[in-house]
Amino acid sequence: MTGSVDQVMVSVAEGSLPQVLTDLREAGLVVDTVLEALGVVTGTADIRAIPALRAVPGVIDVERQWRVQLPPY
């Protein structure tokens, strides 16, 4: 059974981005965007993989991105 997939934003420690990217992919992140100057990686991951993403050395934080839909007026 597969879990739910969410958009995530990963904050990475300065200077560790190349190795962290490889480790994040191995931990289950499908990378969408790398914002190198900000030390941020965005992508999608199974919500059950979030603890593994947080455990990657060099990762500061992993945040789920929430979508809000307002009705048209």
Give structural attributes.
73 residues; alpha+beta; 2 helices; 4 strands; globular
Description of the structure:
With 73 residues, this protein is of the alpha+beta class. 21% of the residues lie in helices and 37% in strands. A four-stranded antiparallel β-sheet has the order 2-3-1-4.
- Beta strand count: 4
Task: State the assembly state of the protein chains.
Answer: single chain
Distance between the termini: 39 Å
Low-confidence stretches: none
Globally, the shape reads: globular
Counting H and I runs of at least 4 residues, what is the number of helices?
2
Helix content: 10-25%
Largest sheet: 4 strands, antiparallel
What percent strand? 35-45%
Structural class assignment: alpha+beta
List SSEs in N-to-C order: EHEEHE
Average the pLDDT over all residues and give the rounded result: 91
**Which strand order does the major sheet show?**
2-3-1-4
Q: Mind telling me the C-alpha Rg?
A: 13 Å
Brief overview:
The chain is of the alpha+beta class. The protein contains two helices and four strands; from the N terminus they run βαββαβ.
Layout of SSEs?
Layout: E1 5-12, H1 17-26, E2 30-35, E3 40-46, H2 50-54, E4 59-64
Antiparallel strand pairs: 1-3, 1-4, 2-3
